[in-house]
Write a structure and sequence with these properties.
The protein is 45% helix and 10% strand. Strands 2-3-4-1-5 form a 5-stranded parallel β-sheet, with helices on both faces.
C-alpha cells in the first residue's frame, strides 16, 4: 500500500517536535506529541499560512516512527490530483497526519472517502492528526457528520509568534546553521520580515547563503543590503 504514496511519505529535513518554537502554542505542541505517543486519538490544528502546522505534523510522524509506531503524512495538495480510493487501506497505520484537510471541503467524493477513513481509523484504535486553515465549524463541509467528527477531538488554533518569540526563533535557527547573529540584528530581521515562522526562516536561509558567498557577518547593514531594506 505504501508504494502508492511515495511523495506523501517523504518528510522534510529539520521539522521535528524538538525544534518547534512554540511561543504561545505550548498546548498545540503538547497535544500533537501526545497523539504521536498514542495518548490522544485525534487533534486538529488550524491557523494562518506559515504558522508551523506542517512542521508539527511532520514532527509528529517522525516522533511516532522513532517510537516504533507506523505513521504516515498525507498532504492534501499531493492527494487531490489522485482519486479518493487512495485512502483505501490507510487505516493500517497507527497514526495518520492529514495536512490541509480543509482542501477536501466541498468535494463530495473526497469528503465521503475521508468520512469512511475516519470511521475505520477510530474503529481500529488509530490516531488522526489534522491541520486546516480554519476551524471545522468555519469550513464549508458538505457532510455535516464529517464536520462533527473533525471537531470531536481537541481543536486548537495556532497563535502567531510575538516579537520576542520571533527574535528567539531567528537566534536559535541561526545557531543551528552555525551562524552568529546578535539580538539586535535578529530583532531587526524578525520585524522587517513577514510575521510567520516559515517566511522568516526562508529569509534566514537566504542570509546563510549570501553570508557564505560574501564572507560577511549577519549584521543589520548586511541584512539591509541583502533585502534592499
Amino acid at each position: 500500500m505504501t508504494n502508492q504514496l511515495p511523495l506523501a511519505l517523504q518528510l522534510r529535513e529539520g521539522h521535528d517536535l524538538d525544534n518547534f518554537h512554540a511561543g504561545d502554542n505550548g498546548l498545540a505542541l503538547a497535544s500533537v506529541k501526545a497523539a504521536a505517543q498514542g495518548e490522544e486519538h485525534q487533534v486538529l490544528l488550524w491557523g494562518g499560512e506559515g504558522q508551523g502546522k506542517s512542521h508539527l505534523l511532520e514532527g509528529a510522524v517522525r516522533h511516532a516512527q522513532a517510537l516504533g509506531r507506523s505513521a504516515c503524512l498525507l498532504p492534501a495538495k499531493e492527494l487531490l490530483p489522485l482519486v479518493p480510493d487512495v485512502f483505501d487501506g490507510m487505516e493500517q497505520f497507527t497514526l495518520l497526519a492529514l495536512d490541509d484537510v480543509d482542501r477536501f471541503a466541498g468535494q463530495p467524493r473526497w469528503e465521503e472517502a475521508l468520512f469512511h477513513l475516519y470511521n475505520r481509523v477510530m474503529a481500529g484504535g488509530g490516531v488522526l492528526l489534522f491541520t486546516a486553515s480554519a476551524s471545522p465549524a468555519a469550513t464549508p463541509w458538505q457532510l455535516p457528520d464529517l464536520a462533527t467528527r473533525l471537531a470531536a477531538g481537541p481543536v486548537i488554533r495556532l497563535q502567531p509568534l510575538d516579537e520576542q518569540a520571533l527574535t528567539e526563533l531567528v537566534v536559535r535557527r541561526a545557531g543551528e546553521r552555525g551562524l552568529r547573529i546578535n539580538g539586535e540584528a535578529a530583532r531587526y530581521l524578525a520585524m522587517r520580515s513577514e510575521r510567520s515562522p516559515a517566511a522568516l526562516l526562508e529569509r534566514l536561509a537566504t542570509l546563510d547563503h549570501m553570508a557564505l558567498a560574501r564572507q560577511r557577518a549577519l549584521t543589520i547593514p548586511f541584512i539591509k543590503d541583502v533585502f534592499d531594506w
